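Researcher: Let's do a round of design. I'm pasting the structure tokens now; please hold your answer until I've finished.
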């Protein structure tokens, strides 16, 4: 065999599967399988595999948008997707927080792994009654269960308009 004729079978398989990988529902695979097989075989990085079960949430109020990404332990994605067009809407009531009354979950007995961080203005959290709430950092309570930090491209303010929350799967490719 000439040197040019030698090729790596694993690399050739990966190259041929590249066009199909975006259609694979990695979130349906177990975390262990993703890390131990998919990442180990080089189809994805370990970091990507660890985020396959994450969702992206978007909160819109007028022209203002907040986004965040988190591991969906509550099945928030399923709840939000169950509403019309995959989002739920509520009329504005406050400039510092917005509660989504249709999205209610039991607060876990294990404390939140998300902590209040300097520079983060908004959070998605569960209030004491389990209602999903977008809250300004100055109004977080010790009883709030923090789900994720929310980030805005510009200054975010809750205006006198309706607020919508939508969710999508985190794409690893």
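Researcher: That's everything. Go ahead.
Model: Designed sequence:
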């Amino acid at each position: 065999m000439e040197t040019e004729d030698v090729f790596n079978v694993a690399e050739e398989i990966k190259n041929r599967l590249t066009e199909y990988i975006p259609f694979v529902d990695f979130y349906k695979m177990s975390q262990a399988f993703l890390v131990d097989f998919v990442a180990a075989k080089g189809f994805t990085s370990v970091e990507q595999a660890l985020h396959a079960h994450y969702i992206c949430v978007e909160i819109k109020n007028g022209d203002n948008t907040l986004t965040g990404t988190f591991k969906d332990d509550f099945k928030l994605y399923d709840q939000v997707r169950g509403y019309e067009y995959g989002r739920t809407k509520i009329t504005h009531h406050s400039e510092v927080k917005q509660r989504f009354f249709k999205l209610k979950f039991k607060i876990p007995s294990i404390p939140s792994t998300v902590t209040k961080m300097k520079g983060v203005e908004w959070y998605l959290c569960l209030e004491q009654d389990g209602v999903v709430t977008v809250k300004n950092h100055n109004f977080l309570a010790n009883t709030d269960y923090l789900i994720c930090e929310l980030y805005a491209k510009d200054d975010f303010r809750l205006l006198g308009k309706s607020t919508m929350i939508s969710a999508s799967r985190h794409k690893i490719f």
